[in-house]
Amino acid sequence: MEDLHWFVLYTTARAEKKVAQRLEDQDIEVFLPLVEELRQWSDRKKKVQRPLFNGYLFVKTSKINLWKSLQTPGAVKFVNFNGEHATVRDSEIEMIKRILETGVAIETDNGEIAPGQQVKIIGGALEGMEGECVNKGNKDYFIIRVPGINQNLIVNIPRKFLLTN
Fold it and tell me: Which PANTHER family match (predicted)?
């Protein structure tokens, strides 16, 4: 039996939740990171859950079974880099889950970020995580790279909780 890996599936626009549900209905393990935000309409405000990474979700399967996932309505393709299917390590999936569980403010960024100072979080909900610190304006941000989809998670962390390596 071939090893299972987290592959990155690209979906049609705004179809991430439907594709994730369809895959789960086929007993395929899926991870769709969602963040809650308050949306304002002309007549009301409502909390909605939106995908953390627009157009992407993670599918845990073997290379042999990738085709089965692609047959799902709304699935477009698996992300490839240099001719190889992009994979995300279990530890990166767990890190994303842990960050989402804390409820800290989070945003994504897919731009190239120059390598910065490596730091370890020494306090707060994300204590023990290691990553990169960059400065944006007057705030310090902690970056966790998800190379499988060329995305970065950017979390605002008080400077007092960052210890340089």
Answer: KOW MOTIF FAMILY PROTEIN, EXPRESSED (PTHR30265:SF4), RHO-INTERACTING TRANSCRIPTION TERMINATION FACTOR NUSG (PTHR30265)
